[in-house]
Specification:
heterodimer; A: about 400 residues; alpha/beta; Rossmann fold; 3 domains; 6-stranded mixed beta sheet; 3-stranded antiparallel beta sheet; 16 helices; B: about 290 residues; 2 domains; 5-stranded parallel beta sheet; two-stranded antiparallel ribbon
Chain lengths: ~400, ~290
């Protein structure tokens, strides 16, 4: 550990180096802001910063926030501070440095990046957005169904209207009754002491008006992931109709399609015109009816969108037959990760309605242990009949 | 106080802290930031707060989180019974509304819960927020507010600002992801299972009367057990129980009495399938390797 990076002579000083390091971490997917850079400097002042191991420990405590980041940190630290005497060319912020894929701006990311020197030699974290997405696209071109399908041929307006009714029923069944926090209510199972006492002041301490509180029902957020790979084509009509109905009935719902890659279709389906919404969706669902990569799609979902849209009050609804071209461990790991968000996961499999169906497809078998509900659904009526089971979740 | 001083001080109280943990604790103390500790159950996350309060000679205030934890249990609650009695007494004495109201909504009638108690101490206490992942997201959001401003607003009374800033330690078992907002306000350390030397030092600190040979065997055995695929990996506390059980039974060598060894395994294996997996033969083999 004696090979400490030699910085160039025109290097502006330790402060810029630390800023450069924070930029380097940021480029590698750690979410750090200006406050962290400031805190890192404060922390280094408190330890013997010239001892690499001590600086490493201090910076790890400040810059990481979870186990994965802490594991990743050591390699990032080594690549920036310990890279065998390779001279850094630039420490000052450079405009040409690559910006995060999450950020799309018409302007330059000027001053955004606090000097990403060293990112070229840094190891890729291997699970960033960009990489997964890129891989998905690459393979999609191999397996993609070349005939572009217009989903408007599949879904009719009356289907959507019917699905809307079903989606409303499901939404109503999916109230979260677990809330232990109570709020004031006209009728309730407990006395609201605070209000009762306050009111009783007017009557000389005689609590004449008893005010109550009760447990409120909290709405659950439905997040639907629909498989539109080749094997699911015949069910697509029902499910896509259902998705667009769901989107129209429930303003908090969220929807995704996946085949060989994952697409978020929430915005498209919120279009006021139902048929135009389907049209927009079919443009996005390029590759419809092609191969299926359930595991990687779910994994990408768990690592990206789920962090923003899935919480303890969400119900993740996966509509798929479970025929995956990838190893089943990926599905299992992805669901496990998703489950950590605290959500309920339900899997609706159209094949389960068949006589003597058993989840023997390796992907499906790997998924079953992680599911809160595994049920059949291949028509709208089946979906509607789910409301009792969903209510019991 | 440097981190090595802190490490020695913790050691004197019987807690063997790794270098990573000591640096993080030292930074939390000097930067005044909360420290988030994650790790498997039984690696000593809760114990560190207890030891730290002993080192700093201050009070330890503990808030155990659970689902549905709300403000009336975490921050404050009015003492309704007292308020009611006071109103009745005032009515009989013929006092009027405003004075009664001022009295019953004063600090005297406020029941302090851990978070309020922690910010109204004269000497900065150690505030342990245990198993934060069990509380729900609403509570996490509320906690953020307290951790950044160190003040509590009570509608009837006004804002109570911290007299001293407590040292906050949060622990999590990782049953649920915590929000990024909470994570970024905290310093972070992942507490691993201790390695062989550290664990031996822990055993010596906690159980000084143990025979050196048995001690080494116990640690070897437990470390071997942790490599197995168990449902519940034994933690440090279980290891100490195991050592205490062996000493209580007067066993000086793990390999000497397989039946007694199997009986004491109840201190390490906490599920039925784990107990079925570690058969007497397996246990005997581990004991033989550990010796």
């Amino acid at each position: 550990m004696s090979r400490v990076t030699k910085f160039a002579g025109r290097d502006p000083g330790p402060r810029a180096r630390v800023a450069g390091f924070i930029g380097h971490l940021r480029d590698n997917g750690l979410r750090l802001g200006v406050a962290e850079a400031d805190m890192a400097l404060c922390a280094l002042r408190l330890v013997n910063a010239s001892a690499p191991e001590e600086a490493r420990r201090a910076l790890r405590a400040v810059c990481t926030g979870c186990k994965e980041e802490a594991e990743q940190f050591d390699a990032l630290f080594d690549s920036f501070w310990m890279d065998a005497g390779r001279v850094k060319q630039k420490i000052v912020p450079s405009q040409s440095s690559p910006t995060s894929d999450d950020v799309h701006s018409s302007r330059d990311a000027k001053g955004e990046d606090a000097g990403a020197a060293g990112s070229a030699s840094a190891p890729d974290d291997g699970d960033g957005d960009a990489e997964s997405d890129g891989t998905g696209k690459l393979i999609a071109t191999e397996l993609r169904n070349l005939s572009r399908k217009d989903l408007r041929d599949l879904v009719r307006p009356e289907d959507i209207a019917a699905a809307e009714v079903v989606a409303r029923r499901l939404g109503a069944a999916l109230r979260d009754r677990r809330s232990r926090r109570r709020i004031a209510a006209r009728k309730g199972d407990r006395l609201h002491f605070r209000k009762t006492i306050r009111r009783s002041l007017a009557t000389g301490g005689e609590p004449l008006h008893l005010l109550h509180k009760r447990r409120p029902d909290r709405p659950r957020k439905i997040v639907a992931l629909c498989d539109v790979s080749g094997s699911m084509t015949i069910y697509a009509q029902v499910f896509l109709g259902f998705l667009s109905g769901l989107m129209r009935a429930d303003t908090t719902a969220d929807a995704y399609l996946f085949h060989t890659r994952l697409v978020r279709i929430t915005e498209a389906l919120r279009d006021k015109d139902a048929m135009r919404a389907i049209g927009r969706m079919s443009l996005m669902a390029d590759g419809f009816g092609g191969g299926s990569k359930i595991g990687p799609s779910l994994d990408l979902f768990a690592q990206t969108y789920a962090k923003r849209f899935v919480d303890g009050r969400s119900v993740v609804m996966i509509l798929s037959d479970g025929y995956d071209t990838e190893p089943p461990e990926i599905i299992s790991a992805a669901l496990k990760r998703l489950k950590k968000r605290g959500c309920k996961i339900i899997w609706l499999n159209p094949l389960k309605g068949w006589k003597d169906y058993a989840p023997v497809a390796s992907g499906m078998a790997a998924a079953v242990p992680h599911l809160d509900l595994f049920s059949a659904a291949n028509t709208l009526n089946d979906l509607a009949a789910l409301d009792r089971e969903l209510g019991a979740l | 106080m440097t981190w090595t001083d802190l490490q020695t001080a913790l050691g004197r109280e019987g807690y063997v802290a790794s270098d990573d943990l000591s640096v993080a604790l030292q930074l939390a103390l000097s930067l005044g930031r909360p420290l988030l500790l994650e790790g498997a159950a039984g690696v000593g996350k809760t114990e560190i707060a207890r030891t730290l309060s002993a080192v700093k000679d201050t009070q330890l205030i503990r808030l155990q989180c659970y689902e549905g934890l709300d403000a009336s249990q975490a921050i404050y609650e009015w003492n309704y019974q007292r308020q009611l009695l006071s109103i009745r007494a005032a009515a009989e004495a013929g006092e009027t509304g405003k004075t009664v109201e001022d009295r019953i909504f004063s600090r005297e009638f406020l029941l302090e819960r851990p978070l309020l108690a922690a910010i109204s101490q004269d000497v900065p206490p150690v505030l342990l927020i245990d198993e934060i992942d069990r509380a729900d997201e609403e509570f996490e959001a509320y906690l953020l507010e307290i951790l950044s401003d160190f003040q509590v607003s009570i509608p009837e009374l006004g804002t109570i600002t911290a007299i001293t800033r407590p040292l906050v330690i949060l622990t999590s078992n990782g049953t649920r992801d915590l929000s990024d907002a909470l994570r970024r306000r905290c310093l972070y350390t992942y507490v691993e299972y201790p390695d062989r030397e550290t664990e031996l030092a822990i055993l010596k600190a906690r159980c000084p009367q143990i025979d050196a040979q048995l001690g080494a065997q116990v640690i070897g055995f437990v470390q071997k057990l942790r490599e197995e695929e168990l449902e519940k990996t034994p933690g440090v506390a279980e290891m100490l129980d195991f050592a205490a059980a062996l000493m209580g039974l007067g066993i000086a060598d793990l390999t000497s009495d397989p039946a007694a060894l199997q009986a004491t395994l109840t201190t390490l294996l906490k599920t039925q399938s784990d107990q079925a997996q570690i058969t007497p033969e397996v246990a005997g083999r581990f004991a033989g390797k550990a010796a």
